[in-house]
Amino acid sequence: MSKTTRRTFTISMLALLAACGKPQQPSKFQRYSGPPITQISVNKGERRMHLLSGTNVVRSYDISLGNQPIGHKQFSGDGKTPEGIYHIDRFNPRSAFHLSLGVSYPNANDKAYASQFGRDPGGDIFIHGRGPQGNNLFPRQRDWTAGCIAVTDQEIEEIYAMVPPGTQVVILP
């Protein structure tokens, strides 16, 4: 081995060893191996969300809602969280609110209602973490979202791992 080759090899090995020693950021993606989650139940009045497996509550969370929490979401920009039966229809690993699970609002009834008034029913309703914006607002304002359901960033990591696509979401007043 030539002197130049040994030097290149030594530098490469030192760089590799240095990279191995760097502390790794904990992943926001967790694994879940418990009972299957079959339903998400949200009680807006109690500000509680429950993950269920059949009829058994597996986990419960305190939640924040839209900034106008009373009543069913009807139109874009009304600040309300929907009420009714929906399902988880998408996952966003790059959410501005840490992680998020999409709720299938608006459904056909929501669209028809808004259409009667020539209005947009809105959309982009998620169950999400707080992210930087929510962490800044939450201490002063319990309900701060634009209509979504928010939990802490740590809690959304758990929920994101537990809930499969298509899970029913029941949102009660």
Mean pLDDT: 88
- How many DSSP H or I helices? 4
Supply the CATH superfamily name.
L,D-transpeptidase catalytic domain-like
Q: What does the main sheet amount to?
A: 8 strands, mixed
Number of strands: 8
> How many domain regions?
1
CATH class: Mainly Beta
Spatial sequence of strands, sheet with the most strands: 3-2-1-8-4-5-6-7
Order of helices and strands: HEEEEEHEHEHE
Any idea what the radius of gyration is? 22 Å
Q: Do you know the CATH topology?
A: L,D-transpeptidase catalytic domain-like
Which geometry do the CA atoms define? globular
> What's the architecture in CATH terms?
Beta Barrel
Low-confidence stretches: 5-19
Structural class: alpha+beta
Beta-strand residue fraction: 15-25%
Distance between the termini: 75 Å
User: Into which percent range does the helicity of residues fall?
Assistant: 25-40%
Note down, in words, how this protein is organized.
With about 170 residues, the protein is an alpha+beta fold. The chain has a single domain, classed as L,D-transpeptidase catalytic domain-like. The protein is built from 4 helices and 8 strands. The chain is globular, with a radius of gyration of 22 Å.
Question: Which key terms come to mind for this protein?
Answer:
single chain, 173 residues, alpha+beta, L,D-transpeptidase catalytic domain-like
